[in-house]
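User: I'm writing a tutorial on reading structure tokens. Could you give me a worked example: one chain, its sequence, then its tokens, then a sentence or two explaining what the tokens reveal?
Assistant: Sure. Here is the example chain.
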Amino acid sequence: MSTKPAAGHIAALETRSISELNFMMRDAHERLYEVRTGSPEHRLAKAAIEEITRSLWARLN
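And here are its predicted structure tokens:
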């Protein structure tokens, strides 16, 4: 299981490049599949994916 922090990522999405956001999205998906469904880590990875997605969509619109 990965121990990479997601909370710090979410706090600073607006300052990240699209390339960084893509890397963070890939990392969040890896964490999502590494942990048990329904665990706090799983919920955190899902939340990170949702926030990164919102940030990417906001840049495209």
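What the tokens reveal: Residues 40-60 form the longest helix (21 residues). The chain has three helices and no strands.
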